[in-house]
Amino acid sequence: MAFELPALPYEKNALEPHISAETLEYHYGKHHQAYVSKLNELTLGTADEDKSLEEIIQSASGAMFNQAAQVWNHTFYWHCLSPQGGGEPKGALGDAIKAAFGSFEQFKEAFNAKAVSNFGSGWTWLIKTSDGGVDISNTDDADCPIAHGQTPLLTIDVWEHAYYIDYRNARPKYLDAVWNVINWDFIAQNFND
Amino acid sequence: MAHQLPTLPYAYDALEPHIDALTMEIHHSRHHQTYVNNLNAALEGTDLESLPVETLMGEIERVPEAKRQAVINNGGGHANHSLFWTVMSPQGGGKAKGDLASAIESELGGDEAFREAFTQAAVKRFGSGWAWLSVTPAKRLVVENTLNQDSPLMHGNTPILGLDVWEHAYYLKYQNKRPEYIKAFFEVVDWDEVARRYAEATA
């Protein structure tokens, strides 16, 4: 059964003015679609055709890994964003963030600094640590925490295609804007699972 | 003396319509400038500040380990972009001539095979990086690609033609269509400059 591009959980213009409809036209409609299409080309007629995305990510390497992980990463990223997003996390997740970083503001600063330092193409993540806390990490290119047995809670895409139309070379401006649309309900659900 | 942003050898709009003026302006005045600034910051307080950037990249193990990755990223960024601007020209395009054309013929199977190999090297570079035509220490031509801002000089090759395939190099005009950008690049390649670099690398 072929892999499919999952539906975007909101309209393409829903995240404006923070992320433009034009960006989502390309990012979801072209980039994410291309990863799905290439994954189907690579898996067609192979034993991987009937595997789940997660199984491929945990077993594949090279081009197959890149396509599968990019399909997964983008789906996860779309769900980390919401037109009703923004604000601060509450409950157990909010407490874990404060315990790890001191305050929500300090967490954001640490996350932004990590994302700015991610050289080239990649992703910046909030992950759940084995002791039930939280930490920030970077991955390169398509790499993804579930390939390393980690539990991702939140991701921000820092490939240039995620922000170049809206912010050009100014990755920090994109990062500042994206906090306005972070879907803390989804991230709390990931934390509580 | 600190490293400086080189002047572009043509106007920002000179490579239109193949590479647009806005892309050139941001690419040169923002991206390249940032690499220069960060390189100078990384080298501050070392005894490597006066080395030409090409020498620095070729002798990268001389950089203290704590600063090496920053120098690879930003020294590479400075060296790669400095080469990139010079191998394009509004009078560019066409094919290589002379000794370089002969070498492309005998070592890479001719112009068409070279273009195909170079295009594949550029398309297949996943994420950010560069495609190159380089000269090996044995003075043979090779098509290769590198990740992020890694320079062929780091493994002993001398780049003579380079194509930036970071998304910032083409996203405003070509968005996700990297193959169209690669095709457009060949319309502005300054083969005289590539031949000059080939002669220098094989001398």
UniProtKB/TrEMBL annotation, chain B:
Q: Please name the source species.
A: Chromohalobacter canadensis
Query: What name does this protein carry?
Result: Superoxide dismutase
Q: Where does Mn(2+) bind?
A: H27, H81, D164, H168
Q: What is its EC number?
A: 1.15.1.1
Q: Which reaction does it catalyse?
A: 2 superoxide + 2 H(+) = H2O2 + O2
Any one GO CC term of this protein is:
cytoplasm
Q: Which Gene3D superfamilies match?
A: Fe,Mn superoxide dismutase (SOD) domain (1.10.287.990), Iron/manganese superoxide dismutase, C-terminal domain (3.55.40.20)
Name the UniProt key words of this record, in alphabetical order.
Metal-binding, Oxidoreductase
* Signal sequence annotation: none
Q: Could you say which protein family the record assigns here?
A: Belongs to the iron/manganese superoxide dismutase family.
